[in-house]
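Work package 3, deliverable 3.1, input record:
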Amino acid sequence: MLKVHRDICGYCGCCVSVCPEGALELIDAYLCVEKNCTSCGICAKVCPLGALEVVHEK
Amino acid sequence: MKNKYDVLVIGGGPAGAIAARTAAQKGLSVCLIEKRSAIGAPVRCAEGIGQAALSEFVKPDKRWISAEMSGATIVAPDGTVMELESNLAGNKVGYILDRKIFDRELVWQAAEAGSDISVKTRATAPIMDGGIVKGAKVEFCGKVSNVHAEVVIAADGVESKFSRWCGIDTTVPVREIMSSAQYVITDIDIDPHSTIFYLGNEVAPEGYLWVFPKGERTANVGIGISGRKSKTGHRAKDYLDKFVHKTFPKGKTIEFIVGGVSVCQPLDCTVSNGLIITGDAARVVDPLTGGGIYNAMFTGHLAVEVAADCIGKGDTSKKALMAYDAGWRASKIGKSLKRNYHIKEYLITLSDEKLNAIIRSASKLNLTEFSTLNLIKELIKVNPKLVLELGALAASLR
């Protein structure tokens, strides 16, 4: 699943623009991850701050 | 806010504000909604714009102009410098804005012209009827209401969602998002009237690093790198920190922002039934410079020109609104977007050695018109071989 490190996130929306599923939404200063996220990691790659991380569940 | 307008504008940046202002001036009923609680903040912009371009839409005003530019400097990967000067009278070619105040001023003008404004108000879904956009569901402090409109103008920026909800794919390819970061640094030694662009794969892979003066000793120091080059340890902030540590070790950072800038081709189609898409949401940022303010204002204005005409004729179908899509594509910005996209695609293939050679070819260029087009033309004059490399594109540059 996609983990948002909210203490790092600069709520800029860069990740939202590249999400192929449309699963991210920037609601003011809050990044929202919707259920259709496939954990593809594209957003985590482009984040200028490294605030997103795909965490593999045990 | 009422529950029905001629035009509903989603987003309070330059595209939305100019759209709302134009609509009100034309006597249409219009409402602009902005999801943030304040217009203009946080800034996600290097704030540069050409003087003539800006003046087309708003009278320049000292209250929101941080600095006036008279030239620019391009720094090659090996440190070779190329200075660009204007031989225009007065020598003033561009501005670095104070976007917090500038954006607020534009929305203020929209309000004064008669537009309704609603902040901290977010569109959560389009109101659809048989494939036609009829307005939007909007949320304000937990309260959801329906706002109907003849035409909805999506001006919701790089993180645009509205047009996607209406069925349009707005995904920016990974390699064409500029992952960006910027500090406002003060107490540094700079030329307060010249912008600096640093190029190179070590400095800013497939992008550039900028120093845009905001005053005598203050500047926006920022970077954009291609999303495909961004990874742990090599993110926009990492490259920027390395540069700042080396170049401005004693500077004081008074602001830190991040952002994404699309440098892809515009959306295949920027209208739908009852919907017009403008500015960054339409992906009309200049792919070579990353500049988006002018194109946002231009498309915001044109959107309402077309919307007003279509509303007057009682036909806001996609077919009727296509006049907007065709209009900006045929305009100066449409041509420039196309050309600059191809130039960008060529430039990102260049090695540092090649960039060094091009920049070494002219230490000083005097431009009659301060534009990227003119710069490329001048570079071709001193590097005739570039014409071959630019291939089919070269014809349009002569």
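The first strand of chain B starts at residue 4 and ends at 10.
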